[in-house]
Design a protein that fits this description.
Layout: E1 7-12, H1 16-31, E2 36-42, H2 46-57, E3 65-67, H3 70-77, E4 81-84, H4 91-100, E5 104-108, H5 115-131, E6 136-139, H6 146-157, E7 164-172, H7 188-191, H8 195-198, H9 200-211, E8 214-222, E9 227-228, E10 239-240, E11 246-253, E12 258-264, E13 272-279, E14 282-285, E15 288-291, E16 296-298, H10 299-309, H11 312-318, H12 326-340, H13 348-367, E17 371-372, H14 373-378, H15 386-391
Parallel strand pairs: 1-2, 1-4, 2-3, 4-5, 5-6, 7-12
Antiparallel strand pairs: 7-13, 8-11, 8-17, 9-10, 11-12, 13-14, 14-15, 15-16
Helix pairs in contact: 4-5, 5-13, 6-9, 6-10, 9-13
Bound molecules: nicotinamide-adenine-dinucleotide (NAD).
Length: 395
């Protein structure tokens, strides 16, 4: 590929999240014509692959090829890059095959179904790069939202809360209907875990982005409701599930920061949600900044100050083509990494580090003790993942 050729990307897995990726490709067809081409769509469900291809044909001149078999896609189509939007249990095998075929890979979070699967995938990337450099990027978009970019600036660059001290991160509700459309999410062997891995991996990546690495985790993880419902109020559409629905944890960071983390979707009655950061000079949350000296800045004012602080080059990196869609940002970051030979913002290591925190919650519950995240990342602690690793031949 020369720097002027569009990067051909095959979208593999055309379910729920692929919709957000296709919206991003549509925006880029308008804002950055010639940057990428969706060269193929692939799903075991042919109707989904066809629907996705039809959607692509609305915004780019060439219709993508359609596949139901990933290996056939790799052999016949030989895509320059693949965008993998698949259930967690196939991430590692699909990433490894794509890398071995010489394709650049963007894979949805979490990186893999277990830490062993994630490490296998990183090893395959290293091997592939010895032959010829290829990019492995993780589709992690939360940190690329304007509000999180502004928070990062406020905390790390402008020092507006002073020395970070504490995080309070709580999401408490009853939302077990969430997952009924994607049955694999109820099955640990397919998903690797519940929302602590699936959803809160975003939170842990965000914490790493804002505050540096999490060092230890002490957690209690529970499954209060082994049946999940289409409508949790009326208890209709029960689906059995073996993944957790509640987790409460204390996290400590390498910097000394401490966090109180709660996530549950098994809390009937009144729900609440907040994420607030405290430092020596004040606090920051979704409403804005409250300083120790009484100064208050709304989040809109913070974002305005942040945007005003950026050079045009920084703005183009953080919000390419002036987008506010974080999925567009992650895709452009991936394309630029391929084109310029640079590291993507969230590479395989960063993806593994975020999922190691989710896995550390499971390991802490299993062991009944605090767990060092580094031990989980390196594979020294892995008992809670044993059944998953055994099932997928990862021991
Ligand atoms: N970044 C985010 O905010 C976000 C949000 C939702 C999901 N995700 C991630 O996206 C990925 C997919 O989640 P989803 O909600 O779209 O799931 P989904 O079940 O809606 O879609 C997955 C698709 O993959 C297809 N598929 C399964 N096995 C396949 C195979 N062997 N070959 C080809 N196609 C296959 C399925 O038929 C389905 O259409 C997961 O990694 C998930 O964690 C990310």
């Amino acid at each position: 590929m020369t720097s002027n050729d569009p990067l051909g990307i095959a979208v593999v897995g055309c379910g729920g999240m692929a919709g957000s990726h296709l919206r991003a490709y549509r925006e880029l067809a308008q804002s950055a014509p010639g940057l990428i081409t969706v060269s193929a769509t692939c799903d075991v469900d042919e109707a989904r692959a066809r629907r996705a291809a039809a959607e692509v044909a609305e915004f780019q001149p060439e219709a993508p090829r359609i596949y139901t078999d990933f290996r056939q896609l790799l052999d016949e189509h030989r895509p320059a890059a693949v965008d993998l939007v698949l259930p967690h249990n196939v991430h590692h095998t699909f990433v490894v095959e794509a890398l071995d075929a010489g394709a650049h890979v963007l894979v949805e979070k979490p990186l893999a179904v277990s830490m062993a699967a994630g490490r296998r995938l990183l090893a395959a990337h290293e091997r592939a790069c010895q032959r010829s450099p290829v990019v492995l990027a993780v589709a992690e978009q939360y940190r690329r939202r304007l509000e999180e970019r502004a928070n990062c600036w406020a905390i790390r660059d402008a020092g507006l809360i002073g020395e970070p001290r504490m995080i309070f991160s709580q999401r408490v509700n009853l939302s077990m209907g969430l997952i009924v459309g994607t049955a694999w999410r109820h099955d640990r062997l397919l998903s690797g875990g519940g929302w602590v891995l699936d959803g809160e991996v975003h939170t842990f990546d965000l914490f790493h982005y804002l505050f540096g690495r999490i060092a230890t985790v002490y957690a209690a993880v529970r499954t209060f409701e082994p049946l999940r419902y289409q409508d949790p109020q009326t208890l209709s559409g029960p689906t059995p599930s073996d993944v957790e629905d509640a987790a409460i944890a204390v996290l400590t960071f390498e910097s000394g920061l401490i966090a109180n983390f709660t996530w549950t979707q098994a809390a009937p009655g009144k729900e609440f949600q907040r994420r607030r950061y405290y430092g020596s000079d004040g606090s920051l949350d979704q409403d804005g900044l409250h300083k120790r000296d009484g100064t208050v800045l709304s989040s809109a004012e913070l974002q305005e100050q942040f945007l005003a602080s950026l050079t045009p080059e920084q703005k183009e990196t953080l919000f390419p083509y002036d987008t506010r869609d974080p999925v567009v940002v992650e895709i452009v970051d991936f394309v630029r990494a391929v084109r310029d030979g640079t590291a993507p913002e969230v590479d395989g290591r960063e993806g593994l580090a975020a999922m190691a925190v989710s896995e550390a919650l499971y390991e802490s519950e299993h062991a009944g003790t605090p767990i060092k995240v580094a031990d989980v990342e390196a594979g020294r602690v892995r008992a809670a993942q044993h059944d998953i690793d055994a099932h997928w031949g990862l021991l």
